[in-house]
Amino acid sequence: MPEITRSQYAVLTGLGFSIVASMLLLAAVILRGQARDAEAREEERRRVPVGAAPSPAGEPLREAPPATVGRRSAEPADLLALVDADEDAVTGSWTRDGRSIVSPKLPFARLQLPYQPPAEYELALTVTRLEGKDSFNVGITTPGRQACLVLDGTEEGGLSGLDQVGGKWFRDNETSYKGGIFRPLTPTRVLVSVRKAAFRVSIDDRLIIDWKNPDYTKLSLYREWSVWTRRAIFIGSHESSFRIDEIRVSPLGSEGYLAR
Questions:
Q1: The model scores a pTM over 0.85
Q2: Cα(31)–Cα(35) distance, rounded to whole angstroms?
Q3: Phi/psi of residue 245, each to 5°?
Q4: Which of 38, 95, 99, 142 is the most buried (most CB within 10 A)?
Q5: Partner residues linked to 125 by β-bridges
Q6: Fold type of domain 46-258
Q7: Cα dist. 11→7, 14, 17, 49 in Å?
Q8: What are the backbone dihedrals phi and psi of residue 187, each rounded to the nearest 5 degrees, phi first?
């Protein structure tokens, strides 16, 4: 058997170290992914107790559906197709109209979407006002914070913004917008962009909110808009009924968590 020279030994030793280092790196990546998935599943299990946070209309939170084993994905997702109108309704009776979903005309009606987004993402919706003059709402999440975007808020509509920013209501903070958004029986395209550099909202390709260098730590969620899972996004309506024809999320630069 030929002897191994010193240079050959050095090469083999270096190769061995490289293989071990690669295996350790791969194991770390796998463990990190498993930890993120476990954290997301745990978040799904941490539900608000049944009957908590009743709305002024006396609508308590429904019992949360059983937690499911989901999956991570960096691809855009059609959340409307994944919604179960019965199971995902936090308050109120949400119904299917073909492929679309219709919200009830109740105070603080909300439906939790089966998705936990990464730090940056875009959410596209197509929404039609059917009844009422008050708001359509989009629940967003940022790292460590959950908040509610109010569109056409107040009894007469025409005021929009994030609720709450630094304790200030949607009608009186740096994200406030004055102007009508939804016309009766007219589909409206809503695009919400959550990024570290800016929070933006566009209506039919018209930019209405452009919060640059946002301090997301200032956000808080009014208790009447609470849902079961703090990292989940949601939709809602207040004393108005809307038909939702599209809900599509696009994660940016990282993976989101699909709960089903």
A1: no
A2: 6
A3: -100, -10
A4: 142
A5: 190, 247
A6: Jelly Rolls (2.60.120)
A7: 6, 5, 10, 61
A8: -60, 135
